[in-house]
Design brief:
CATH topology of the largest domain: Rossmann fold
Radius of gyration: 23 Å
Number of domains: 3
CATH architecture of the largest domain: 3-Layer(aba) Sandwich
Shape: globular
CATH class of the largest domain: Alpha Beta
Strand order of the largest sheet: 1-6-5-2-3-4
Low-confidence stretches: none
Order of helices and strands: HEEHEHEHEHEHHHHHHHHHHHHHH
Distance between the termini: 59 Å
CATH superfamily of the largest domain: HUPs
Largest sheet: 6 strands, mixed
């Protein structure tokens, strides 16, 4: 099969955005891939584009990662996870004849300067819908002097196909189903034809311990045994296919034991592609109902959350929620709260509710909380906070601080659903919540082995004491 022409590579595509237009500079010495959201060297459409363009113009491809110690809300546990992933990415990139250079600093400091230093003819990056990602891309596009394309590498169906904010899963689902056959296909692995000549540009040693020493980040402690990187992501995927897919449709809301993929953090950091997960499930010979349930969560629900963050500038505040919910919460703003806890009490899991306390402790200790319990957890924060605005802010802060997949569209959409009715509908009216959906302790604890869950979290807490 012949390789695509440069003209075809630069043609408009729903997965590619022209952040800075133009064709590769004929005087350039290489193509730069700025790796940020898609932190992997396999199944990566952004990397593929960089390599394909480099091959088409007869130049090497080189990757750069800007590692900043000041990412908003990120803690020591998140940085450890990230740098473990960089080691895998460097190895996989090397296998494809592409060097990875890691430099300390923000992207606006690192990427334009690096592109100028290496004589870039063309720059490719990966899309990221969250606010800090958008700001970085705008700054890099402004300061580069060569063309810059951004590739939507961490969704199955490109976000550009949904230019408006979707109302709910029921509105985006048929749109995704109509086109996902066009995109849910194996991602080819392209090897760079031209190696970087001589020694690579200077960068940091790509070793997790060495990078952590250089970063000197503090905050919430690392989680023992919660390993980042593509190797660990593939191990978890295999475990899911071998041991969990068969009961996923029936038991995915059961947190003891987990029946989910437990890949949310690896998807957040781009250590594995959602396409990789979806294709492995479809081809793994599991039950149809389990595969369908997984694709609903992995593609429809996840990409609904990405659409929310990409299209709603207030995605991390109550003001980003639908008007009907804002009105009903305002109408009940003065309702008496049976309990009121400040953010510090919530953080320490010092409430009267043993199930909520267990969920909070699991998040703090392990960097994760089961999705079903995340809904209950956020709704109780609304019930126990003086205002809905303060509840929303507290839930986002705790989620982003402790969850290994914090600062992710799924997290923001989940908080918005639980507290502000996002992607939901009005329910029968009740105190505090108005017509926002309510979840009670009694009903929630009866839907799974809550006593076993609380006991399991207690054993984790004792083991970490």
């Amino acid at each position: 099969m012949s390789e695509p022409s440069l003209e075809r590579l630069l043609a408009p595509h729903p997965r590619v955005r022209e952040a800075r237009p133009g064709a590769p500079d004929p005087e350039g010495r290489c193509v730069v891939y700025w790796m940020q959201r898609a932190q992997r060297g396999v199944d990566n459409p952004a990397l593929n584009m960089a390599i394909a363009v480099a091959n088409a113009i007869g130049r090497p491809a080189i990757a750069v990662f800007s590692l900043t110690a000041n990412y908003p809300g990120a803690q020591r546990r998140h940085y450890r996870f990230l740098v473990e992933g960089l080691a895998d990415a460097a190895e996989d990139l090397g296998r494809r004849n592409v060097r990875l250079v890691v430099r300390l600093g923000t992207p606006e400091e690192v990427v334009p300067a690096f592109a100028e230093e290496v004589g870039a003819a063309f720059v490719v990056g990966d899309e990221n819908p969250v606010r800090v990602g958008r700001v970085w891309r705008e700054a890099v596009a402004r300061d580069l002097e060569v063309p810059f394309r951004v590739v939507d590498a961490d969704v199955v169906v490109p976000t550009s196909l949904f230019p408006k904010e979707e109302y709910a899963a029921r509105t985006i689902r048929p749109k995704i189903h109509r086109v996902w056959g066009d995109f849910l296909k194996p991602i080819p692995e392209i090897r760079a034809k031209h190696a970087w000549p001589g020694d690579p540009p200077c960068g940091e040693q790509i070793d997790p311990d060495a990078l952590m020493k250089k970063l000197r980040v503090g905050g919430v402690a690392e989680v023992p045994g919660y390993v980042g990187g593509t190797r660990e992501a593939m191990r978890r995927l295999k475990r899911f296919l071998d041991e969990r897919l068969g009961r996923y449709a029936e038991d995915r809301n059961e947190p003891t034991p987990y029946c989910t993929t437990e890949l949310s953090a690896h998807l957040h950091f781009g250590h594995i592609s959602p396409t990789t997960v979806a294709l492995a499930a479809r081809e793994g010979g599991g039950p149809r109902e389990g595969i369908d349930a997984l694709l609903e969560e992995l593609i429809v629900r996840r990409e609904l959350a990405i659409n929310f963050v990409a299209r709603n500038p207030d995605y991390d505040a109550l003001s980003g929620c639908p008007e009907w919910a804002l009105k009903t919460l305002a109408a009940h703003a003065d309702d008496p709260r049976p309990f009121v806890y400040d953010p510090e009490e919530l953080e320490r899991a010092e409430t009267h509710d043993p199930l909520w306390n267990a969920a909070q402790k699991e998040m703090v200790l392990t960097g994760r909380m089961h999705n079903y319990l995340r809904m209950y957890w956020a709704k109780k924060i609304l019930e126990w906070s003086p205002t809905a605005e303060r509840a929303f802010a507290a839930a986002v802060e705790l989620n982003d601080r402790y969850e290994m997949d914090g600062r992710d569209p799924n997290g923001y959409a989940g908080v918005a659903w639980a507290i502000g009715g996002k992607h939901d509908r009005p329910w029968p009216e009740r105190p505090i919540f108005g017509t926002v959906r309510f979840m009670s302790y009694e009903s929630t604890r009866k839907k799974f082995d809550s006593a076993g869950y609380i006991k399991r979290v207690g054993s984790i807490e004792r083991g970490r004491a």
